[in-house]
Write the structure tokens for this entry.
Amino acid sequence: MYNFTGEEKLEVCMELAEDYFILAADPEIQELQKSGKPVISYVEPALRNHRAEALKILARLQSKDGVTVDEYLANTGTFAIAMELTQIFTSPEFVGLFNSQSQKAEGTSSGSATESTEVDEH
């Protein structure tokens, strides 16, 4: 996969953000992650449930300007697809999505406790 720099990262992010979050929000992938299954097990549901999005991401990440999905499929080995998806699923950004999605509003706050500053009028 291509190593984007500077403004290129922002451009690619704008192009792929929706597809990226669709993969991250897949209930089957989330369940696999929660149950501690190996990351490679995410590949099958990603391709089965979101083939277009997964291939769009992989094709775009191949070069500075990306390639078409057809070009990507014609020039990529079968197992390279699985390995490249695994790279995406193990990226710190993708892993961070699981951590932020699992936080609950009613959970214990990690912030410091503050003292009440209300004045008792009694």
In short: The chain has one domain: 6-102. The chain has six helices and no strands.
